């Protein structure tokens, strides 16, 4: 069987269009600073912050910009070395998990965090919603031991195909000081 060039061109065009469907950005992502269609997520980057793309389940890392818009330059003397920046970091997770429930995803995310740091305790597990109304859970873990207790806030979401998480991790005092920044970032998070 032979196909005419126009039929072949139509088939190729349709397959290219179908292949690109995954990368379409829905209206819910409009106005977000950072949109990742391949992962189906969008979020605003806090003012004075920057980000980097990562590979694996953690696809994005957001953190305070070390130079806050200025071109970096080496200090002229040790006395000019600025104090360490906050250790606060926000990670975006995307895991392919067909049909996982939100509660199961939260249980799994908590277990994974506790495997990395065994002293983490769940201090809150609160139902909520993303800006588009999608059901979400806010989980707060805390390591009460040590000089600087560690806190991890997780905004967790599950879709039919994927499990998503936005995780803010820092020393308790730093996370408390950046509460407004973290809230705005979490409030802007959408998935599709």
Task: Summarize the structure in words.
Helices cover 24% and strands 34% of the residues. With 192 residues, the protein is of the alpha+beta class. The protein has a domain at 44-66 and 86-192: Mog1/PsbP, alpha/beta/alpha sandwich (Protein Transport Mog1p, Chain A, 3-Layer(aba) Sandwich), CATH 3.40.1000.10. The protein has a 7-stranded antiparallel beta sheet. The two termini are 41 Å apart.
Supply database-style keywords.
192 residues, alpha+beta, Protein Transport Mog1p, Chain A, 7-stranded antiparallel β-sheet, 3-stranded antiparallel β-sheet, 24% helix
In spatial order, strands of the major sheet run: 3-4-5-9-8-7-6
DSSP helix count? 4
Report the end-to-end length measured between terminal Cα atoms: 41 Å
What percent of residues adopt helix (DSSP H or I)?
10-25%
CATH top level label of the domain at 44-66 and 86-192: Alpha Beta
Q: Would you identify the CATH H-level superfamily of the domain at 44-66 and 86-192?
A: Mog1/PsbP, alpha/beta/alpha sandwich
Determine Rg (CA atoms, Å).
21 Å
CATH architecture assignment of the domain at 44-66 and 86-192? 3-Layer(aba) Sandwich
Number of strands: 10
Shape, please?
Answer: globular
Uncertain stretches? 7-21, 70-75, 80-86
Q: Report mean pLDDT, rounded to a whole number.
A: 83
| CATH-defined topology of the domain at 44-66 and 86-192 | Protein Transport Mog1p, Chain A
Largest sheet: 7 strands, antiparallel
Question: How much of the polypeptide forms β-strand, as a percent range?
Answer: 25-35%
Order of helices and strands: HEEEEEHEEEEHHE
Report the structural category: alpha+beta
């Amino acid at each position: 069987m032979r196909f005419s060039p126009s039929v072949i061109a139509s088939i190729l065009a349709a397959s290219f269009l179908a292949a690109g469907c995954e990368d379409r950005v829905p209206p819910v992502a409009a106005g977000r600073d950072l949109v990742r269609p391949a992962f189906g997520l969008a979020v605003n980057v806090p003012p004075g912050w920057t980000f980097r793309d990562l590979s694996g389940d953690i696809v994005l890392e957001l953190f305070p910009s070390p130079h806050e818009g200025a071109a970096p330059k080496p200090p002229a003397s040790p006395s000019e070395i600025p104090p360490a920046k906050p250790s606060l970091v926000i990670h975006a997770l995307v895991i392919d998990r067909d049909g996982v429930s939100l509660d199961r995803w939260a249980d799994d995310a908590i277990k994974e965090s506790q495997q990395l740091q065994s002293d983490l305790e769940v201090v809150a597990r609160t139902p909520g919603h993303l800006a588009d109304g999608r059901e979400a859970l806010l989980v707060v873990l805390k390591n009460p031991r040590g000089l600087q207790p560690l806190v991890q806030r997780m905004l967790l979401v599950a879709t039919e195909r994927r499990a998503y998480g936005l995780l803010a991790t820092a020393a308790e005092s730093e996370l408390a000081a950046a509460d407004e920044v973290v809230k705005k970032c979490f409030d802007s998070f959408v998935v599709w």
